[in-house]
Amino acid sequence: MAKPLVTCLLFDGQAEEAAKFYCTVFKNSKITQVTPMVVTFELNGNKFMGLNGGPKLKFDEAISFVVSCDTQDE
């Protein structure tokens, strides 16, 4: 089975606040995990990750994609 892509957004410490806001805007949305570094959430069934990257990696229009793999070769 193909691994799902997760869209990753970078923040300077506001990832949880952003995820909470996005969940108020889009129906059928929820926060699935919160750690000091990473917040994962779903918006209408689409998975997202908010990464608190610090002041050198501030929020902008860029995105990254995360694919979880079992091995480095994969």
Automatic annotation (TrEMBL):
Residues 5-74 form the PhnB-like domain. Gene3D superfamilies: 2,3-Dihydroxybiphenyl 1,2-Dioxygenase, domain 1 (3.10.180.10). It holds the Pfam family 3-dmu-9_3-mt. It comes from the Bacteria. InterPro entries: Glyas_Bleomycin-R_OHBP_Dase, PhnB-like. This is PhnB-like domain-containing protein. It comes from Pedobacter ginsengiterrae.
